[in-house]
Amino acid sequence: MLRNRRTEITTALILIAPFLIVYIWLFLWPTVQMIEMSFQKAPLIGKGKWTGFANYIRMFKDATFLIAVKNTAYFVLLSVVPGTVVALSIAMMVSRLKGRLQSLILAAFFLPYVLPVTVVYVIWDWMTNVQFGMMQGLITFLVGEPVNIWRTVDWFMPGVAILTIWWTNGFSILLFLAGLRNIPAELYEAAQLDGATRRQIFLRITFPLLWPITVLCLTIQLILQLKIFDQVYLFAQGGQTRATMVLVQYIFEQAFQKNNGGYSATLAVALFVIVLVFSLLQFQILRIRGQR
Amino acid sequence: MKLSIKAALMAAVMFGTGAQAMETVVWWDFLGGGDGVRMKKLIEDFNTEHKDAIEIQATTLDWGVPFYSKVQTSAAVGEGPDMMTYHASRIPLAVSQESLTEITAEDMATMGLSADSFAPATWEAVQVNGKQYAVPFDTHPIVLYYNKDLLEKSGLIGADGLPTGLTGLENFNAALAKLKADGNEWSIAQVTADGNFAFRTVYSLLCQQDGQIGNDGDWFPGDSADKLATSIGVISDWVKAGYNPPKTDYPSTVALFTSGKVPFMINGVWEVPTMDDLNKQGKLFNWGAIEIPALFNHTCTYSDSHSFAIPNNVDKPVTPEKHAAVLEVIKWMEARSLFWATAGHIPANKAVTESAEYKAMQPQATYAPLTANGVFDPKSVLAGVASPLFDAAGNAITPAMNGELDPADAAAQMRDELNGM
Known about the structure:
The complex is a heterodimer of chains A (292) and B (421). Chain A is mainly α. Chain A has helices at residues 5-37, 54-61, 63-96, 99-110, 117-127, 136-143, 153-181, 185-193, 198-226, 230-236, 247-257, 261-291, and strands at residues 40-41, 49-50.
């Protein structure tokens, strides 16, 4: 069939136009403006003055920025891999169950995921309340005295990591479960005939075949956790916010509390670069390992 | 057929104009607690009284940074409300962001109010560079709540039925020691998990020593930083001695007090309705609230003021009718603030606090005179509730109160952080 290339291109353009317009207008254009603003001394709203690299120089000398980077990295370390390991183990246990019981248990693990962060905050705040919280019994048993987790700097990030894993694990569990169901049963039968141990079955069959899912989970988690904000903001408010500062929180503070639009844009660019570099790096590394 | 269409159109037009005569006032507030319930009642009453003339359409938003971010961003694009509640302490920042409209002398005259209607410190708190940006509605300081039954047992209630022997730090601490010795689990509940909140107490004690919070560049002039350390030390000593529970958050202090586990509590006047309601249900002991005693040179209490402000909606000029309606709302609210006093807040309008009805209200009338000794936030864009000043307090005072940081270091940290901004 004869086709006119020009009309084909026109049709294609018309068809993707709605997406392109929305994408350029609501995503690309604000990004460009953000980068522009990062070179200005500007309020949150309104015109700014060009100051060259002043904001970037300030950022690298800013002790709070360094604390925020360190805390964000620490949180990622505490949540991404441990969260994925927990999700994988829960998924493997759940996959052994059958029928209704499986749905029920799965629902139980998925339930926290549908909660809004404010509800998660209220639940955990009460469970861990230093005067009346039910978890203080466990904490007193472990360390000998009640601890206000959200006001003790050393406990803060691990605490947030645990509740974040509790909160967001449901989704990873679902992904892993789907992956587990896709592994053909014949493989296991054959391995059993060959006398493979359970450990060997997991290491040689289950885990390699789940690798793509694991990569996906880790990447989603990494990007999500680099952007940690709500939990830290809610639990730290009123306390030592400086010591527990994370990147997005610092951007928020500079923009909305201190009205430093320009500097907060600089911080946002820094976060953008960090997320980009880390997710590309992680994806590449994990892919190479997976091909081996 | 045609005629009926015409008639319908006509009716629609007439109906339309009829509806236009009614002004709506879009109202935003941040009053989510017991006071919010009372404000809703006031708004309802207003709407009933002004049926077919003015209708308030109220929305309650989240207190603190979320509220003020929303006001700032929406006013900048002309999407703000017609009026809103505002903390006096946040006005300097709002003025620098150009998000408030000036209240003119003419406006004040329309409402029948003037500088003389308010306490001097409260009036001063809504002015920036000689211009008025809000109408004070109340002052809401912190007060000392007490459990009368427990104090009586320890002999701390005087002949006038009020707590006695609390003046001077030594006496006050002796009273706390007595209460502890008499078998109370704790003696006093001051929020120790939030330096941000505890700052109200620390600032009051600083003012009692004639210390000051200055302004940009020189936040603690003279020996104020030393006095700040002394103030923080008062609370950390309470924690150290076991008088005050450590790292305890706001709801827990209220729960400890209302369950009778602690005879004193330092908290905002806005907790009065909590006590009132519990008392009415017969679930509370005899209680009262007094001005924070003079632990140092004289009494002085940190206060802030809820006020009414009109946003500067960019590119959306206000019609004279709408402006008149807004002024009518403020005027009406100011006149009815006696009911607002049931929320614990001290009405800013002196005509109300001087009325016989107010003087019969307890414990409000007992602590109301403290407005004469009030100290407000310094006039800075970095001060005010949920501001960088409060955050700096949270960072420095939280660990200091709980013995993790020396009070002197905390004061220095707070000074350096603020001076560096």
